[in-house]
Amino acid sequence: MILRKALVLSCAAWLLAASGARAAGHDVLPPGYSPDTSSDEAGLWMLMDKEEAAVKTSPNIERDEKLNAYLGGVICKLAGEYCPSIRVYVVDTPDWNASAAPNGMVQVNTGLLLQVKNEAQLAFVLRHEITHYVHRHSLAKTRKVVNTAGFLKVFGLAMAGVGAGVGADPRGAISLGNALGIYSITAFSRDEERDADDGGFKRATTLGYSPTEASAIWEAMVAENKADPNFSRSAFFASHPGEEERAATNEKLAAEVAPTRSDWITNEDSFHAATAPFIGRWVEEELAQAQPDRSIVVFRRLAASMPSQGVYQYGLGEAYRKRNQTNDAVAAENAYRGALACADAPPEAWRGLGLLTMKAGRNADAREAFIQYRAKLPDSADKAMIDFYLTQL
Amino acid sequence: MRYREIIAPLALCGLLCGCAHTSNDIATSAPVNWSAERGKKVLPVDPDVELNELTFGGVAELRADWTQTGKSFIKADIASMLQAKGIATASADGISDPHEVQLVKLHGVVGQSILQNTLVPLPTKKNNFDWTLGSGVAALRDHYQADYALFVYVRDSYSSGSRMAFAVLTMSPTGAMQTGFASLVDLRTGRVVWFNRLISSTGNLKEEKPAAASVNNLLDGLPL
To answer: Is the Cβ of A147 closer than 8 Å to some Cβ of chain B?
Structure first.
């Protein structure tokens, strides 16, 4: 009985130690480092090398030389002395994210490039990821999982001794031990995210990136999540701190740093020069996610901040047309007309307008719009369909 | 239930007897008549090997050093076995062509499906072994001038000291296990003409002799 008590007590102590271990004590990667092959870190790198070999040959990688050279340059500047150890891959997916693997593989999703307004906004996100790499967060998390699994094994034995099992119970509820285990891992992960935000902010502002741009991406995410009827998250088990918290932290930091100099940069022009050839495709990929509630928020923001770029207003029109709720048709038509008034009016806005007005029974308007579309894009893939519509109008 | 009928003896065998179990599948509708195929060439594709350490709590951690050692033994054993049979081989180390990489990945997926099918067979795959990678394998045939490709996939795990001690103390199994499969693909048709799976609770790919024994089991019944 005494032995059992001691086991339970030692387990409790272990858990406290395990959940108390904070990312603050991270281990900074020495530049040019490669781990000893017998270490757990080498195993992690090997797994990532395997993943990288797959990424390298994936058809979903955007290989455009100019875009890659531009992003490589930005990342190299952000990574500083770690630049030679980092490889960048542009992943063609609308899910807006970026990541840095422990072996130095950095992935930047095209969705992120669509959503940020300038190089400064991108820099804060990228340096956040590079901080994960420099502070070896993946390794710390792996060790945390290993320790927690060990804890749960002993905790389970002890609790079985006092008559409480560990593991999912027959009704499907999660047990105390597992809940504590998951909580301690996700709490650890949230602290690493805070550490990466902090490291990202410091390095990017040192390089002169405007601190007021740091919170923009989190504010955008908050707005998108609020608009998304399918979005839900549990704060207890979340691996990242809430976007509200991150936006607020970044704003607070920005208020402190902003007055220290007046020559902050955003590099908006070079960012747009590098991404312009792809925006049309990335807009279609955002729309193809079939999440019009989110897309409306995205394109309203982008159209408002870059009103001369018709492509964003076209995206907004498409999102409204596809959502098709009360008043969406009016909003869609306004957006299409706004897009067509721009110098870079995308021909697809004529098609959207045609489909919208055809549905409303405004045959003359639809006809005019389809004729414009056919004239401006004579070889479009959907020309047969549009020609058929024209015979019906 | 069929699943239990198969998995129970496998698990029993694996956990209790500490034996190695292999099982062959041959595409009877596309038989290999090697002796009639003099001069044909085999392409041994770089084996997919991972050796893990099972931590005290049961997390499998990849060990880079063990994996490198194990993989080099497996490669050498396969090469010497093919050489002993007098089979001409082409070398395909470090495949980097995107299409060829996709073919290797495709084989990984098909191989896993075959493996799964041996446990829970699809109704359409009960009595016929007719898996294929498709005619796209012609790319490998043309590049390496080979007629067959030999794929090997191995996963092995070893208990850490603390896990082993705990297992001995509580008389519970460690869960360490060697699993794998090998398959022979006809590069003229894409058909998987031979498939062998291995499951074993013993073995040690970190050392030369036991590694050779494992490769022997893995290639047991190879119709070449």
So the answer is: yes
Reported confidence tier of residue A175, pLDDT bands at 50, 70, 90:
low
Residue B67: inside a domain: yes
Is B224 contained in some domain?
no
What is the dihedral sign for C-alpha A107, A112, A118, A124?
A: negative
| Inside any domain, residue A268 | no
Q: Are the C-beta atoms of B15 and B173 separated by less than 8 Å?
A: yes
Alpha-carbon span A299 to A292, nearest angstrom: 10
Binary contact (A54, B105; C-beta < 8 A): yes
The answer to whether the Cβ–Cβ distance between B59 and A146 falls below 8 Å is yes
Q: Are residues A16 and A156 in the same domain?
A: yes
Would you call A57 and B102 a contact, using CB atoms and an 8 Å cutoff? yes
Q: Are residues A232 and A314 in the same domain?
A: no
CA atoms within 13 A on the CB side of A128: 23
Query: Is any Cβ of chain B less than 8 angstroms from the Cβ of A152?
Result: yes
User: Which domain range does residue B118 map to?
Assistant: 2-218
pTM of the model: 0.80
pLDDT of A141: 78
Residue A221: Cβ within 10 Å count: 18
Q: Hunting for tokens 């049979």 — which residue is that?
A: B85
b/e code A175-196 from CB counts within 10 Å (16+ = b): bebbebbeebbbbbbbbbbbbb
- Regarding whether A309 and A371 lie in a shared domain, the answer is yes
Q: How far apart are the first and last CA of chain B?
A: 36
